[in-house]
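Hi team,

As requested, here is the filled-out complex form for the manganese (II) ion run. I kept the field names the same as last time so the parser does not choke. Let me know if anything looks off before we queue the next batch.

— J.
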Amino acid sequence: MAFTLPDLPYDYDALEPQFDARTMEIHHSKHHAGYTKKLNAAIEGTDLEKMSIQQILAEVSKHPSAVRNNAGGFYNHDLFWNILSPDGGGVPDDSSDIHQRIVNAFGTYEGFQDEFTKAATGQFGSGWAWLCVHDPVGNLFITSTPNQDNPLMDDAPNKGVPILGLDVWEHAYYLKYQNRRPEYVSAFFDLINWEEVNTRYQAAIKQVAMI
Ligand code: MN
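And here is what came back:
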């Protein structure tokens, strides 16, 4: 069964002014659509057609680079769109598990922001910054990956279940921010859908035991 480009959970202009409508439209309808189409082409006629995207990522090192790059691109963007919201930003709700875990791992929300910003601005060239669940207890860590790699891949240096990700490819920010990646990273914090991240945190605790 072929993978399908998911619809965005909001309009292309919904994340203005932080993420401009033109960038969002190109990013979703050209880039994400491209990864989806090329993933389907790369798995056509193989056993991978019967697998979920998570199953493909879990043994991606066995497969050609076209599978790796496009399965990563398909999964990463789907996560990215869903952890953004026009009503997002700010500090996660005090009573949420994710708030408590962030405080445990990074001291404060600002401590989390600092470390995440370093990962996102420090990733040389194209890639992603991630907040991940490390273990079934729910410990968190921040990491970055090159290209369309992610921490679910079997050969990732830091494995975990990503619950928040930021695309730092230039296609994600160049129209509005040009070479000013730190401004784009700063704007991202105004859009994080912490309710969704908390939901993904709950699911990840159960999933992480299996990877
Ligand atoms: Mn992208």
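Two things worth flagging: The two ends are 23 Å apart (CA to CA). The CA atoms of residues 5 and 33 lie 6 Å apart.

Thanks,
J.
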